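Posted in: Structural Biology > Protein-Ligand Complexes

Title: Requesting predicted complex, flavin-adenine dinucleotide in pocket

I'd be grateful if someone could produce the 3D structure tokens for the following input. Sequence and ligand are given below.
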Amino acid sequence: MGPPPNERGPGMSETGDVAAARLSAADYGKNFGDVKPPLDRARALVEASRCHFCYDAPCIAACPTGIDIPGFIRKIGTDNVKGAAVTILEQNIFGGSCARVCPTEILCERACVRSAQEGKPVKIGALQRYATDDLLARGIQPFRRAAATGRRVAVVGAGPAGLACAHRLSMLGHDVAVFEAKTKPGGLNEYGIAAYKLTDDFAQREVAYVLSLGGIALSCGKALGRDIELAGLRRDYDAVFLGLGLGGVNALGLDGEAMKGVEDAVAYIERLRQAPDKAKLPVGRRVVVIGGGNTAIDAAVQSKRLGAEDVTIVYRRGPEQMSATAHEQEFAQTSGVGIKHWARPVAIVGRDGMLTEVRFEYTKLDPAGRLVGAGGGFALRADMLFKAIGQVFVPAPLGDGTAEPLRLSQGKIGVDAERRTSLSKVWAGGDCVAGGQDLTVSAVEDGKRAALSIDRALRKGA
Ligand SMILES: Cc1cc2nc3c(=O)[nH]c(=O)nc-3n(C[C@H](O)[C@H](O)[C@H](O)COP(=O)(O)OP(=O)(O)OC[C@H]3O[C@@H](n4cnc5c(N)ncnc54)[C@H](O)[C@@H]3O)c2cc1C
Ligand code: SF4
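-- Reply #1 --
Done. Output follows.
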């Protein structure tokens, strides 16, 4: 028996094969179209009728933003779609993107009693999308700003955390200035989430909707640590919220990482998300992805959808330890991506500066539970290698000579339950804070909680 398709056998060609336009225009359209098409009215009514409207509904407790799920489903059932959307958005202003990107299978839908009863939860995510899409399409902003407080808050980072914070602060009557380093707002909704989850420029349409409340001045191309400084913001504003996300990625620590064909998965996904014509984006014929999270799954599936022939994810531990959910892993496998467990890379091999193969050793846990080499290994031919082994917080933008440094915890910003940092007047939330879930919905909840805490502090000090 010869080697599996992507494993190297004697005499095989070792030249890199990275090319654009591997597919027809129709295939690109299909592959990057909406992965979960929306419910129409008839199907939404049927789905809504499946809800038991449970007392003490477990789905609400499982939603990080605490949306009244049976409440909005009941409204859909009576054709009050606007009311349903308001119920969602008053807890989660990014209810539209969360309906598309939330891993509902480990949150509300896992908790749904229908899931335990018949293995088929109410499709809460799809119903949430049905309601919020309607309001967004009609451009209805149901919230009004409270009477002006005269207080000014600076928000750094226009991702889900920063904008959720800004929206709530504005609703409470404060004026908000948002500073964003990139040219477009939205954070990873714009630059990171898989293209087939947020189609049709949804990230920008949703940001426009959030900003339509008023009272939020957005400045793009303004980076903390380059154009503005934390000390200045603390001096000039009544409060500051940091929603900086994670700016760095972990390295493999192997020779050859600078070789042509070796890519940081997050940077590649960003290029893919910004490419108006996906056919122009080169992808390898054989792609290897190292990692076990969302980023690894998204880099692998999107490579496949760009026309890569062989795509293999290699993860150093077992399927249960992958941070990508079982649902995401299955999605990758049904998309034609292979997943190999219990192996880690030991060498990146190339010719003339161009990647040709990645070598792995098998791994296992020793009696003390540590990950160790298990002896033996294999090589995968590769034209592209994506590193997706985790993102890290980059504290450099905070280093402005402030007398009191911001306390970090586990390499991220340390915050309390209200998302207050160790510095007076400074709050933080989303991926950049310690102890979070690194999900869009938790970033939104952080932003909301911080806004409520800021509001309390400003009113106390008024
Ligand atoms: C590839 C990938 C796929 C993902 N898929 C999912 C998914 O399917 N479902 C899900 O729930 N979650 C997913 N996530 C996680 C989710 O995207 C994040 O948890 C969420 O975006 C965090 O929001 P945030 O506002 O904290 O950070 P971000 O979205 O990262 O936003 C931070 C913002 O701050 C800006 N910024 C950074 N530094 C500065 C500075 N110095 N000055 C000014 N601005 C600055 C950034 O440019 C950015 O706009 C994914 C993440 C990745 C990387
Ligand atoms: S747990 Fe399921 S059935 Fe019960 S209220 Fe929530 S969505 Fe409805």
